[in-house]
Write a structure and sequence with these properties.
single chain, about 80 residues, flat
């Protein structure tokens, strides 16, 4: 591979990593290891890959949503 192509791939990889950290990505999957149709090991995988700043922002947004759901309604506090 020539130097120009290597540099181009490096830029693409940096852009991809920047986008993943800015937006976040969730990896979700299941792995089952079996022998003779007998399941021996099951592994469930849930991974959130993002920047710390984005994770804190998502945590704050979730907390606000939960608090809004738990707050009494504005019609005098009575629920129907």
């Amino acid at each position: 591979m020539n130097e120009s192509a290597a540099r181009e791939k490096e830029i693409v990889l940096v852009d991809l990593l920047d986008r993943i950290l800015y937006k976040g990505v969730i990896l979700w999957g299941d792995i089952t290891i079996s022998v003779a149709d007998v399941d021996l090991i099951y592994l469930g995988l849930k991974v959130l890959l993002t920047s710390v700043e984005k994770a804190e922002e998502m945590r704050r947004q979730t907390a606000v949503k939960v608090l809004n759901c738990l707050a009494p309604s504005s019609n005098g506090g009575s629920r129907s």
